[in-house]
Amino acid sequence: MLEFSYTPPSIHLLEQSLDALPQSDAAVALILVAEDRKGFFLGEVQSPELQLQEQLNQGSVIHRVEGGQWQWIGFLPAIPESEAQLYKKLRTVVSQIGPLRAEHVAIHLYGFEPEAGARVAEAALGVLLSQRVVLSSYKSAPKERWPLSRVSLSPALAIDIRRITAEVEGNALARYLSALPSSELTAREYRRFVHRLAQQEGWECHDYDQVQLAERGAGAFLAVARGADDDQGAIVRLRHRVSDKQGRLALVGKGICHDSGGYNLKVAGSMYGMHLDMGGSAVALGTLLAITRAGLPYGVDCWLAIAENHIGPRAYRPGDIVTAINGKTIEVVDTDAEGRMVLADTLTMASENAPDLLIDYATLTGACKRALGSRYSGVFTNREAWLVPLIEVGRRCGERIWPFPLDEDYDETLESEWADLLQCAPGASCDHIDAARFLSHFVPAQTPWLHLDLSGFRHKGGQGLVTSEITGFGVRLTLALLADGRFLSKVRKQGR
Ligand SMILES: [Zn+2]
Q: How confident is the model at residue 489 (pLDDT cuts 50, 70, 90)?
């Protein structure tokens, strides 16, 4: 049985001086010093050992043992110019202390102004908590856990501890699920897991199984799901309704537990790693968990499009024409473009009760990755005024996004001789844009919509708060978008 558990350490805000640090029972202290106060800091500690290290090791992490306490010291820009740089430095510092497996870690900030300090403290705490998450391993010698039970943070800066721990937990869930091999996270097991989690969290949960989807005419989703002989593909709907004071949110995720490519079979190298093709759904689920844990006042419907893309007697084929739930007919071109097929019907269903904001997450196209690499994910929206704010929010939270156009005339590429829409355009270079245009045919224009093509879902060395290659990209971004207020609240004011 799949099991996910995350217990955050207790976190305490303290007013304690640098001198008092070694007297606490923290075995490890992480001291973050504003770069422009480096001279003052080295003067205050009066440690020839640290001064020597600093001279030999310019800009990097230095350390000492003081009164029995391991102290790791990192120098950071006083006002972080580039957030990416800040997160990268924090990941480097924190990865030094992880192997020490301390139960109590103290984080101390030196020389920062309160506002910049709060940003640094929040990010440092997030990196520390994320690093402690252990992804499943199938090695016979299990990895040693980090029994971190307490973190103290000084000085007592104004940070939102509840939100940051909620984000880390949601991201941990997304990474946990994504790291599972397809042999463990089958469609059946995934659905079972989601049901247990829903019960535990008090979410309503309903599976639209293949019989129900056939009754509703979800031909695009079923074209893909029917390729698997166990009939376990389903659109799972979760509903969280503690409060919707700030608006109603619909989250949609692509959950392809394994993508063989279907009859347009992937070649060996590109099929390896395709257990991660459910990453978008894991991010949607992780975001729902984070919103729940943080107690945010949004009503949320979360829609997971869970299926596997197989070959087999009932699998769909290039040239097939299928009818989606909204009545549009689609001419299949390439069975490896299955993500847009399962999302099409799921987006239609998610739009039915007119959410104030609809966000979908998908590891959708190779084209997006070729365009951006994996440091950024692609974003598309039908609200053009959001383009610049989206870039800003992404940079601030460490999960960077870059917008692509969604103009209507791109549809010329998707004209089919026989059906309403061509599934994709073979050989076209901008498949990420074509895919987004394709999806836009399943989202009503009046629904404010963000589509995230998760090219940053996997990045060597990690991104933002996360040091593992699987980044769980999207959970922190979504909470940052909600906290920003320019997206959802604006919609409410327009009185849609
Ligand atoms: Zn595919």
A: low
CA of 256 to the centre of ligand 1 (A): 8
C-alpha closest to that of 341 among 351, 353, 331: 331
Distance 334 CA to ligand 1 centre (A): 9
Over residues 76-119, the pLDDT tens digits come to 988 777 788 899 999 999 988 988 999 999 999 999 999 999 99
Ligand 1 centroid to residue 339 C-alpha, Å? 6
What confidence tens digit (pLDDT) does each residue in 249-275 have? 999 999 999 999 999 999 988 999 999
Q: 104: domain range? A: 10-159
Residue pLDDT, tens place only, 146-166 = 999 999 999 999 999 999 999
Q: Catalytic: which of 340, 369, 400, 476?
A: 340
Q: Are 235 and 377 part of one and the same domain?
A: yes
User: pLDDT tens digits, residue range 443-467?
Assistant: 999 999 999 999 999 999 999 999 9
Phi, psi of 416 (to 5 degrees): -110, 145
Q: CA 85, CA 93: separation in Å to the nearest integer?
A: 12
User: Quick check: pTM over 0.85?
Assistant: yes
**CA 316/CA 309 separation, integer angstroms:** 10
Q: Measure 321 CA to ligand 1 centroid, in angstroms.
A: 18
Active site residue 196: no
Of 95, 129, 159, which residue sits at a domain end?
159
Does residue 147 contact residue 71 with C-beta atoms inside 8 Å?
no
Annotated catalytic residue, options 188, 216, 266, 395: 266
CB 399 within 8 A of CB 464: yes
Q: Ligand 1 mean position to 416 CA, how many Å? A: 21
The answer to whether residue 493 scores a pLDDT higher than 50 is no
Closest CA to 472 of 201, 170, 190, 261: 170
Of residues 313, 184, 341, the one with CA closest to residue 258: 184
**Phi then psi for 2, rounded to 5 degrees?**
-70, 135
Instruction: Compute the distance between CA of residue 92 and CA of residue 76 in angstroms, rounded to an integer.
Output: 12
- Asked whether 454 and 363 are in contact (CB, 8 A), the reply is yes
pLDDT of residue 448: 97
CATH code of the domain containing 267: 3.40.630.10
pLDDT for the residue 467: 94
317 a catalytic residue: no
CB 302 within 8 A of CB 288: yes
Contact 305, 238 (CB under 8 A): no
Assign residue 100 the CATH number of its domain. 3.40.220.10
373 touches 396 (CB < 8 A): no
Q: What is the structure's pLDDT at 59?
A: 67
